[in-house]
Amino acid sequence: MLTIDTLLFPRWIVPVEPAGVVLEGHALAIDQGRILDVLPAVDAAARYLGRITLHLPSHGLIPGLVNAHAHAAMSLLRGLADDLPLHEWLTGHIWPTEGRWVSEAFVHDGTQLAMAEMLRGGITCFNDMYFFPDVTARAASAAGMRACVGLVVIDFPSAWASGVDEYLDKGLALHENLRHDPLISTAFAPHAPYTVAPATLERVRTLADELERPIHIHLHETAAEVDEYHARHGRRPLAHLDALGLLSPELLAVHMTQLDDAEIARVAETGVHVLHCPESNLKLASGFCPVARLLAAGVNVALGTDGAASNNDLDMFGEMRSAALLAKAVAGDAAALPAGHALHLATLGGARALGLDADIGSLLPGKWADVTAVDFGALEAQPLYHPLSQLVYASGRHQVTDVWVAGRHLLKNRVLTTLDADAIHQRARAWRDTIANG
Ligand SMILES: CSC[C@H]1O[C@@H](n2cnc3c(O)ncnc32)[C@H](O)[C@@H]1O
Ligand SMILES: [Zn+2]
Protein backbone atom coordinates (compact mmCIF):
# COMPACT_ATOMS: atom_id res chain seq x y z
CA MET A 1 0.00 0.00 0.00
CA LEU A 2 1.45 3.36 -1.06
CA THR A 3 0.57 6.45 0.97
CA ILE A 4 -0.18 9.44 -1.27
CA ASP A 5 -1.46 12.99 -0.73
CA THR A 6 -5.01 12.79 -2.11
CA LEU A 7 -7.24 10.01 -3.37
CA LEU A 8 -10.53 10.95 -5.05
CA PHE A 9 -13.40 8.54 -5.69
CA PRO A 10 -15.89 10.32 -8.00
CA ARG A 11 -18.75 8.72 -9.92
CA TRP A 12 -17.26 9.79 -13.28
CA ILE A 13 -13.95 11.07 -14.61
CA VAL A 14 -13.83 12.97 -17.91
CA PRO A 15 -10.10 13.06 -18.66
CA VAL A 16 -10.50 14.97 -22.01
CA GLU A 17 -7.55 12.90 -23.27
CA PRO A 18 -8.27 10.48 -24.88
CA ALA A 19 -11.08 12.46 -26.51
CA GLY A 20 -14.65 11.42 -25.78
CA VAL A 21 -13.78 9.04 -22.92
CA VAL A 22 -15.92 9.03 -19.78
CA LEU A 23 -14.74 6.72 -17.00
CA GLU A 24 -17.19 5.43 -14.42
CA GLY A 25 -16.17 3.89 -11.08
CA HIS A 26 -12.58 5.11 -11.31
CA ALA A 27 -10.34 6.95 -8.88
CA LEU A 28 -7.85 9.79 -9.28
CA ALA A 29 -4.63 9.58 -7.27
CA ILE A 30 -2.69 12.80 -6.58
CA ASP A 31 0.78 13.05 -5.10
CA GLN A 32 3.21 15.97 -4.83
CA GLY A 33 0.88 18.17 -6.84
CA ARG A 34 0.66 15.87 -9.83
CA ILE A 35 -1.74 13.22 -11.07
CA LEU A 36 -0.16 9.92 -10.14
CA ASP A 37 -2.78 7.52 -11.45
CA VAL A 38 -6.26 7.17 -12.90
CA LEU A 39 -7.48 3.64 -12.29
CA PRO A 40 -10.50 1.52 -11.39
CA ALA A 41 -11.72 2.39 -7.87
CA VAL A 42 -11.32 -1.18 -6.60
CA ASP A 43 -7.67 -1.21 -7.65
CA ALA A 44 -7.08 2.25 -6.17
CA ALA A 45 -8.50 1.16 -2.81
CA ALA A 46 -6.11 -1.80 -2.80
CA ARG A 47 -3.05 0.11 -4.00
CA TYR A 48 -3.18 3.59 -2.40
CA LEU A 49 -3.81 5.10 1.00
CA GLY A 50 -4.72 8.79 0.68
CA ARG A 51 -3.66 11.16 3.44
CA ILE A 52 -6.86 12.81 2.29
CA THR A 53 -9.54 10.59 0.76
CA LEU A 54 -12.70 12.10 -0.72
CA HIS A 55 -15.77 10.21 -1.88
CA LEU A 56 -17.75 12.15 -4.46
CA PRO A 57 -20.59 9.75 -5.29
CA SER A 58 -22.66 12.09 -7.52
CA HIS A 59 -19.75 14.04 -9.04
CA GLY A 60 -17.76 14.14 -12.23
CA LEU A 61 -14.11 15.20 -12.26
CA ILE A 62 -12.94 17.28 -15.19
CA PRO A 63 -9.63 19.06 -15.86
CA GLY A 64 -9.56 22.54 -14.34
CA LEU A 65 -11.06 24.98 -16.84
CA VAL A 66 -8.64 27.33 -18.63
CA ASN A 67 -9.94 30.85 -19.21
CA ALA A 68 -7.85 31.67 -22.26
CA HIS A 69 -8.64 35.39 -22.45
CA ALA A 70 -9.35 37.56 -19.42
CA HIS A 71 -8.90 41.05 -18.05
CA ALA A 72 -9.33 39.89 -14.45
CA ALA A 73 -9.22 43.26 -12.71
CA MET A 74 -12.07 44.53 -14.90
CA SER A 75 -14.43 42.58 -12.64
CA LEU A 76 -14.63 45.87 -10.71
CA LEU A 77 -16.21 47.42 -13.84
CA ARG A 78 -18.91 44.76 -14.23
CA GLY A 79 -22.14 46.41 -15.34
CA LEU A 80 -20.58 49.87 -15.62
CA ALA A 81 -21.50 50.32 -19.29
CA ASP A 82 -23.84 47.87 -21.01
CA ASP A 83 -25.58 47.53 -24.37
CA LEU A 84 -22.96 49.38 -26.39
CA PRO A 85 -20.81 48.41 -29.37
CA LEU A 86 -17.08 47.88 -28.82
CA HIS A 87 -15.75 51.26 -29.96
CA GLU A 88 -18.26 53.36 -28.03
CA TRP A 89 -17.95 51.07 -24.99
CA LEU A 90 -14.14 51.35 -24.94
CA THR A 91 -13.60 54.99 -25.90
CA GLY A 92 -16.69 56.50 -24.27
CA HIS A 93 -16.75 54.55 -21.02
CA ILE A 94 -14.08 51.96 -20.23
CA TRP A 95 -10.89 53.81 -21.15
CA PRO A 96 -11.94 57.06 -19.38
CA THR A 97 -12.85 55.05 -16.27
CA GLU A 98 -9.61 53.08 -16.39
CA GLY A 99 -7.67 56.32 -16.91
CA ARG A 100 -9.17 57.70 -13.74
CA TRP A 101 -9.18 54.67 -11.44
CA VAL A 102 -6.73 51.97 -12.46
CA SER A 103 -4.01 51.65 -9.81
CA GLU A 104 -2.17 48.88 -7.99
CA ALA A 105 -4.99 48.68 -5.45
CA PHE A 106 -7.64 48.52 -8.19
CA VAL A 107 -5.82 45.67 -9.97
CA HIS A 108 -5.20 43.79 -6.72
CA ASP A 109 -8.81 44.02 -5.53
CA GLY A 110 -10.30 43.39 -8.98
CA THR A 111 -8.06 40.39 -9.61
CA GLN A 112 -8.93 38.87 -6.25
CA LEU A 113 -12.64 39.33 -6.99
CA ALA A 114 -12.15 37.71 -10.40
CA MET A 115 -10.15 34.80 -9.01
CA ALA A 116 -12.78 34.12 -6.34
CA GLU A 117 -15.44 34.03 -9.06
CA MET A 118 -13.32 31.91 -11.38
CA LEU A 119 -12.36 29.33 -8.75
CA ARG A 120 -15.99 29.00 -7.64
CA GLY A 121 -16.75 28.30 -11.30
CA GLY A 122 -14.13 25.59 -11.76
CA ILE A 123 -11.49 27.73 -13.52
CA THR A 124 -7.95 26.91 -12.44
CA CYS A 125 -5.91 28.94 -14.95
CA PHE A 126 -6.44 32.29 -16.65
CA ASN A 127 -4.59 34.10 -19.42
CA ASP A 128 -4.68 37.77 -18.49
CA MET A 129 -4.10 41.08 -20.24
CA TYR A 130 -4.18 44.14 -18.01
CA PHE A 131 -2.26 47.04 -16.51
CA PHE A 132 -0.05 46.24 -13.49
CA PRO A 133 0.56 42.61 -14.51
CA ASP A 134 3.03 42.41 -11.61
CA VAL A 135 0.12 42.87 -9.21
CA THR A 136 -1.96 40.26 -11.06
CA ALA A 137 0.94 37.79 -10.89
CA ARG A 138 1.46 38.33 -7.15
CA ALA A 139 -2.27 38.00 -6.43
CA ALA A 140 -2.55 34.77 -8.44
CA SER A 141 0.56 33.26 -6.91
CA ALA A 142 -0.64 34.13 -3.38
CA ALA A 143 -4.03 32.52 -4.10
CA GLY A 144 -2.36 29.42 -5.55
CA MET A 145 -4.05 29.94 -8.91
CA ARG A 146 -2.34 29.33 -12.25
CA ALA A 147 -2.05 32.35 -14.56
CA CYS A 148 -0.33 33.62 -17.65
CA VAL A 149 0.10 37.37 -17.22
CA GLY A 150 0.29 39.69 -20.20
CA LEU A 151 3.27 42.00 -20.62
CA VAL A 152 0.98 44.72 -21.92
CA VAL A 153 1.78 47.32 -24.54
CA ILE A 154 -0.58 50.00 -25.79
CA ASP A 155 0.08 53.32 -27.53
CA PHE A 156 -1.24 55.47 -24.71
CA PRO A 157 0.05 56.16 -21.24
CA SER A 158 -1.48 54.54 -18.18
CA ALA A 159 -0.77 54.46 -14.47
CA TRP A 160 1.40 51.38 -15.23
CA ALA A 161 3.64 52.87 -17.93
CA SER A 162 4.09 56.21 -19.67
CA GLY A 163 4.97 54.98 -23.16
CA VAL A 164 6.02 52.03 -25.31
CA ASP A 165 9.59 51.90 -23.95
CA GLU A 166 8.40 51.77 -20.36
CA TYR A 167 5.71 49.16 -21.14
CA LEU A 168 8.36 46.94 -22.71
CA ASP A 169 11.05 47.57 -20.06
CA LYS A 170 8.63 46.82 -17.23
CA GLY A 171 7.33 43.76 -19.06
CA LEU A 172 10.83 42.37 -19.54
CA ALA A 173 11.73 42.97 -15.90
CA LEU A 174 8.54 41.23 -14.82
CA HIS A 175 9.21 38.27 -17.12
CA GLU A 176 12.66 37.92 -15.54
CA ASN A 177 11.20 38.05 -12.00
CA LEU A 178 8.62 35.40 -12.76
CA ARG A 179 10.84 32.99 -14.65
CA HIS A 180 10.96 30.45 -11.86
CA ASP A 181 7.42 30.75 -10.53
CA PRO A 182 5.77 27.33 -10.97
CA LEU A 183 2.26 28.80 -11.31
CA ILE A 184 2.83 31.96 -13.32
CA SER A 185 3.95 32.31 -16.91
CA THR A 186 4.09 35.35 -19.18
CA ALA A 187 3.03 36.34 -22.69
CA PHE A 188 3.62 39.57 -24.57
CA ALA A 189 0.29 41.36 -24.79
CA PRO A 190 0.12 44.17 -27.33
CA HIS A 191 -3.50 45.31 -27.03
CA ALA A 192 -4.53 45.35 -30.74
CA PRO A 193 -3.23 46.43 -34.15
CA TYR A 194 -5.35 49.60 -33.92
CA THR A 195 -3.70 50.67 -30.63
CA VAL A 196 -0.12 49.43 -31.15
CA ALA A 197 1.99 50.79 -34.04
CA PRO A 198 3.47 48.34 -36.57
CA ALA A 199 7.02 49.25 -35.47
CA THR A 200 6.15 48.34 -31.89
CA LEU A 201 4.61 45.06 -33.00
CA GLU A 202 7.89 44.25 -34.74
CA ARG A 203 9.80 44.97 -31.52
CA VAL A 204 7.38 42.72 -29.64
CA ARG A 205 7.89 39.94 -32.19
CA THR A 206 11.68 40.13 -31.82
CA LEU A 207 11.47 40.04 -28.02
CA ALA A 208 8.90 37.22 -28.04
CA ASP A 209 11.16 35.20 -30.36
CA GLU A 210 14.16 35.78 -28.10
CA LEU A 211 12.33 34.83 -24.91
CA GLU A 212 10.19 32.13 -26.52
CA ARG A 213 6.98 33.64 -25.18
CA PRO A 214 3.56 33.84 -26.88
CA ILE A 215 2.01 37.07 -28.19
CA HIS A 216 -1.55 37.65 -26.96
CA ILE A 217 -3.48 40.25 -28.99
CA HIS A 218 -7.07 41.32 -29.79
CA LEU A 219 -7.53 40.72 -33.53
CA HIS A 220 -10.39 41.15 -36.01
CA GLU A 221 -12.89 41.74 -33.22
CA THR A 222 -15.38 43.77 -35.29
CA ALA A 223 -16.04 44.55 -38.94
CA ALA A 224 -15.66 48.28 -38.28
CA GLU A 225 -12.21 47.75 -36.78
CA VAL A 226 -11.07 45.71 -39.80
CA ASP A 227 -12.54 48.19 -42.32
CA GLU A 228 -11.00 51.23 -40.63
CA TYR A 229 -7.64 49.50 -40.41
CA HIS A 230 -7.82 48.60 -44.09
CA ALA A 231 -8.66 52.19 -45.01
CA ARG A 232 -5.69 53.49 -43.00
CA HIS A 233 -3.02 50.87 -43.76
CA GLY A 234 -4.14 49.42 -47.10
CA ARG A 235 -4.54 45.90 -45.75
CA ARG A 236 -6.51 44.02 -43.13
CA PRO A 237 -4.90 43.62 -39.68
CA LEU A 238 -4.24 39.89 -40.09
CA ALA A 239 -2.44 40.51 -43.41
CA HIS A 240 -0.41 43.27 -41.79
CA LEU A 241 0.61 41.00 -38.89
CA ASP A 242 1.54 38.38 -41.48
CA ALA A 243 3.77 40.90 -43.28
CA LEU A 244 5.39 41.78 -39.95
CA GLY A 245 6.14 38.11 -39.31
CA LEU A 246 3.78 37.68 -36.37
CA LEU A 247 1.71 34.77 -37.64
CA SER A 248 3.12 31.68 -35.94
CA PRO A 249 2.20 29.07 -33.28
CA GLU A 250 3.23 31.74 -30.74
CA LEU A 251 0.37 34.06 -31.74
CA LEU A 252 -2.77 33.96 -29.60
CA ALA A 253 -5.41 35.84 -31.59
CA VAL A 254 -8.42 36.91 -29.54
CA HIS A 255 -11.92 37.15 -31.08
CA MET A 256 -11.32 36.67 -34.85
CA THR A 257 -14.95 37.27 -35.80
CA GLN A 258 -14.06 38.60 -39.28
CA LEU A 259 -12.30 35.92 -41.34
CA ASP A 260 -12.60 34.96 -44.97
CA ASP A 261 -11.66 31.53 -46.34
CA ALA A 262 -8.13 32.58 -47.30
CA GLU A 263 -7.54 34.03 -43.85
CA ILE A 264 -8.73 30.83 -42.17
CA ALA A 265 -6.36 28.85 -44.37
CA ARG A 266 -3.47 31.19 -43.47
CA VAL A 267 -4.25 30.97 -39.74
CA ALA A 268 -4.22 27.18 -40.01
CA GLU A 269 -1.05 27.10 -42.08
CA THR A 270 0.88 29.33 -39.67
CA GLY A 271 -0.33 27.58 -36.49
CA VAL A 272 -1.98 30.67 -34.94
CA HIS A 273 -4.26 29.88 -31.96
CA VAL A 274 -7.71 31.48 -31.81
CA LEU A 275 -9.03 32.55 -28.40
CA HIS A 276 -12.80 32.59 -28.80
CA CYS A 277 -14.95 34.71 -26.45
CA PRO A 278 -18.53 33.97 -27.53
CA GLU A 279 -20.42 35.88 -24.84
CA SER A 280 -18.35 39.06 -25.08
CA ASN A 281 -18.76 38.96 -28.89
CA LEU A 282 -22.51 38.52 -28.52
CA LYS A 283 -22.95 41.25 -25.92
CA LEU A 284 -20.92 43.84 -27.86
CA ALA A 285 -22.54 42.62 -31.12
CA SER A 286 -19.01 42.25 -32.47
CA GLY A 287 -19.69 39.33 -34.82
CA PHE A 288 -19.37 35.56 -34.88
CA CYS A 289 -16.12 33.62 -34.80
CA PRO A 290 -16.35 30.82 -37.40
CA VAL A 291 -15.39 28.11 -34.90
CA ALA A 292 -16.52 25.09 -36.91
CA ARG A 293 -14.60 26.24 -40.00
CA LEU A 294 -11.49 26.98 -37.94
CA LEU A 295 -11.59 23.55 -36.30
CA ALA A 296 -12.19 21.87 -39.65
CA ALA A 297 -9.10 23.66 -40.98
CA GLY A 298 -7.07 22.29 -38.05
CA VAL A 299 -6.77 25.48 -35.99
CA ASN A 300 -6.46 25.16 -32.21
CA VAL A 301 -9.34 27.10 -30.63
CA ALA A 302 -9.49 28.00 -26.92
CA LEU A 303 -12.28 29.63 -24.93
CA GLY A 304 -12.22 32.80 -22.85
CA THR A 305 -14.59 35.06 -21.00
CA ASP A 306 -12.94 38.41 -21.86
CA GLY A 307 -13.42 40.94 -19.05
CA ALA A 308 -16.45 41.09 -16.77
CA ALA A 309 -17.21 44.56 -18.15
CA SER A 310 -18.17 43.09 -21.52
CA ASN A 311 -19.54 39.66 -20.58
CA ASN A 312 -20.64 40.30 -17.68
CA ASP A 313 -19.47 37.21 -15.78
CA LEU A 314 -16.40 34.99 -15.68
CA ASP A 315 -18.26 31.73 -16.19
CA MET A 316 -16.63 29.12 -18.39
CA PHE A 317 -19.67 26.82 -18.08
CA GLY A 318 -21.61 29.63 -19.73
CA GLU A 319 -18.92 30.04 -22.39
CA MET A 320 -18.89 26.31 -23.19
CA ARG A 321 -22.65 26.26 -23.65
CA SER A 322 -22.72 29.53 -25.60
CA ALA A 323 -19.84 28.38 -27.81
CA ALA A 324 -21.57 25.09 -28.60
CA LEU A 325 -24.93 26.71 -29.37
CA LEU A 326 -23.42 29.59 -31.33
CA ALA A 327 -21.23 27.29 -33.43
CA LYS A 328 -24.33 25.34 -34.46
CA ALA A 329 -26.23 28.50 -35.37
CA VAL A 330 -23.29 30.03 -37.29
CA ALA A 331 -22.52 26.81 -39.19
CA GLY A 332 -26.22 25.98 -39.74
CA ASP A 333 -25.30 22.53 -38.51
CA ALA A 334 -26.56 20.94 -35.28
CA ALA A 335 -23.52 18.67 -35.28
CA ALA A 336 -21.10 21.62 -35.04
CA LEU A 337 -19.12 21.76 -31.78
CA PRO A 338 -20.60 18.84 -29.83
CA ALA A 339 -20.33 18.81 -26.04
CA GLY A 340 -17.03 16.95 -25.87
CA HIS A 341 -15.43 19.41 -28.28
CA ALA A 342 -16.69 22.39 -26.25
CA LEU A 343 -15.04 20.92 -23.13
CA HIS A 344 -11.86 20.35 -25.14
CA LEU A 345 -11.78 24.04 -26.11
CA ALA A 346 -12.24 25.04 -22.45
CA THR A 347 -9.42 22.81 -21.18
CA LEU A 348 -6.82 21.32 -23.52
CA GLY A 349 -7.40 23.97 -26.19
CA GLY A 350 -6.49 26.69 -23.68
CA ALA A 351 -3.56 24.72 -22.30
CA ARG A 352 -2.22 24.20 -25.83
CA ALA A 353 -2.51 27.89 -26.70
CA LEU A 354 -0.51 28.79 -23.59
CA GLY A 355 2.12 26.15 -24.31
CA LEU A 356 1.09 24.30 -21.15
CA ASP A 357 -0.45 21.18 -22.66
CA ALA A 358 2.33 18.94 -21.39
CA ASP A 359 1.41 20.08 -17.87
CA ILE A 360 -2.33 20.80 -17.68
CA GLY A 361 -5.55 20.60 -19.72
CA SER A 362 -6.36 16.92 -19.24
CA LEU A 363 -6.35 14.36 -16.45
CA LEU A 364 -3.37 12.29 -17.55
CA PRO A 365 -0.85 10.85 -15.08
CA GLY A 366 2.19 13.12 -14.85
CA LYS A 367 0.28 16.36 -15.38
CA TRP A 368 -0.30 18.88 -12.59
CA ALA A 369 -3.42 18.00 -10.61
CA ASP A 370 -5.56 20.94 -11.74
CA VAL A 371 -8.96 19.35 -11.20
CA THR A 372 -12.59 20.48 -10.92
CA ALA A 373 -15.38 18.46 -9.28
CA VAL A 374 -18.93 18.99 -10.58
CA ASP A 375 -21.93 17.68 -8.64
CA PHE A 376 -24.66 16.13 -10.81
CA GLY A 377 -26.74 15.09 -7.79
CA ALA A 378 -29.47 17.73 -7.89
CA LEU A 379 -32.92 17.28 -9.38
CA GLU A 380 -32.09 19.65 -12.25
CA ALA A 381 -29.40 17.25 -13.48
CA GLN A 382 -31.75 14.23 -13.74
CA PRO A 383 -31.97 11.97 -15.55
CA LEU A 384 -28.36 11.63 -16.61
CA TYR A 385 -27.68 9.62 -19.77
CA HIS A 386 -24.41 11.22 -20.86
CA PRO A 387 -22.16 13.12 -18.38
CA LEU A 388 -20.59 15.18 -21.18
CA SER A 389 -23.97 16.28 -22.48
CA GLN A 390 -25.08 17.15 -18.95
CA LEU A 391 -21.89 19.09 -18.29
CA VAL A 392 -22.12 21.36 -21.34
CA TYR A 393 -25.84 21.62 -22.07
CA ALA A 394 -27.46 21.38 -18.63
CA SER A 395 -24.96 22.37 -15.95
CA GLY A 396 -23.97 25.59 -14.26
CA ARG A 397 -20.97 26.80 -12.30
CA HIS A 398 -22.96 26.56 -9.05
CA GLN A 399 -22.50 22.77 -9.35
CA VAL A 400 -18.73 23.10 -8.89
CA THR A 401 -17.97 21.90 -5.35
CA ASP A 402 -14.20 21.42 -5.23
CA VAL A 403 -11.17 22.67 -7.13
CA TRP A 404 -7.51 21.72 -6.90
CA VAL A 405 -4.56 23.52 -8.50
CA ALA A 406 -1.30 21.56 -8.50
CA GLY A 407 -2.95 19.28 -5.95
CA ARG A 408 -3.78 22.14 -3.58
CA HIS A 409 -7.42 22.20 -2.49
CA LEU A 410 -8.40 25.83 -3.31
CA LEU A 411 -12.19 25.32 -3.22
CA LYS A 412 -13.42 22.91 -0.55
CA ASN A 413 -17.11 22.10 -0.68
CA ARG A 414 -17.65 25.60 -2.21
CA VAL A 415 -15.50 27.40 0.39
CA LEU A 416 -12.42 29.28 -0.85
CA THR A 417 -9.37 28.25 1.15
CA THR A 418 -6.81 30.85 0.06
CA LEU A 419 -8.97 33.92 -0.58
CA ASP A 420 -10.96 35.87 2.01
CA ALA A 421 -14.40 36.00 0.39
CA ASP A 422 -15.85 38.50 2.89
CA ALA A 423 -12.98 40.96 2.49
CA ILE A 424 -13.14 40.66 -1.32
CA HIS A 425 -16.88 41.28 -1.20
CA GLN A 426 -16.46 44.35 0.98
CA ARG A 427 -13.71 45.87 -1.17
CA ALA A 428 -15.75 45.33 -4.35
CA ARG A 429 -18.65 47.26 -2.80
CA ALA A 430 -16.29 50.05 -1.72
CA TRP A 431 -14.89 50.33 -5.28
CA ARG A 432 -18.42 50.50 -6.65
CA ASP A 433 -19.20 53.47 -4.38
CA THR A 434 -15.91 55.20 -5.20
CA ILE A 435 -16.32 54.79 -8.97
CA ALA A 436 -20.06 55.55 -9.08
CA ASN A 437 -19.67 58.70 -6.97
CA GLY A 438 -16.35 59.78 -8.50
C1 LIG B 1 -3.84 47.15 -22.22
S1 LIG B 1 -4.73 46.39 -20.97
C2 LIG B 1 -6.12 45.69 -21.83
C3 LIG B 1 -7.09 46.70 -22.35
O1 LIG B 1 -8.05 46.00 -23.11
C4 LIG B 1 -9.30 46.58 -22.92
N1 LIG B 1 -10.34 45.65 -23.33
C5 LIG B 1 -11.14 44.90 -22.58
N2 LIG B 1 -11.95 44.14 -23.34
C6 LIG B 1 -11.64 44.43 -24.61
C7 LIG B 1 -12.12 43.99 -25.85
O2 LIG B 1 -13.08 43.10 -25.97
N3 LIG B 1 -11.57 44.50 -26.97
C8 LIG B 1 -10.59 45.42 -26.90
N4 LIG B 1 -10.10 45.89 -25.75
C9 LIG B 1 -10.62 45.40 -24.61
C10 LIG B 1 -9.28 46.92 -21.46
O3 LIG B 1 -10.29 47.83 -21.14
C11 LIG B 1 -7.87 47.45 -21.28
O4 LIG B 1 -7.83 48.82 -21.54
ZN1 LIG C 1 -10.26 41.31 -24.31
UniProtKB/TrEMBL annotation:
Pfam families: Amidohydro_1 (PF01979)
Matching SUPFAM superfamilies: Composite domain of metallo-dependent hydrolases (SSF51338), Metallo-dependent hydrolases (SSF51556)
Annotated ranges, domain Amidohydrolase-related: 61-408
Gene Ontology molecular function terms on file: 5'-methylthioadenosine deaminase activity; metal ion binding; S-adenosylhomocysteine deaminase activity
InterPro entries: Amidohydro-rel, Deaminase_MtaD/DadD, Metal-dep_hydrolase_composite, Metal_Hydrolase, MTA/SAH_deaminase
Signal peptide (UniProt feature, chain positions): none
TM region(s), chain numbering: none
Binding-site list for substrate: 98, 191, 221, 306
Regions annotated as coiled coil: none
General function of this protein: Catalyzes the deamination of 5-methylthioadenosine and S-adenosyl-L-homocysteine into 5-methylthioinosine and S-inosyl-L-homocysteine, respectively. Is also able to deaminate adenosine.
Protein name (database record): 5-methylthioadenosine/S-adenosylhomocysteine deaminase
Species whose genome carries this gene: Plasticicumulans lactativorans
Lineage: Bacteria, Pseudomonadati, Pseudomonadota, Gammaproteobacteria, Candidatus Competibacteraceae
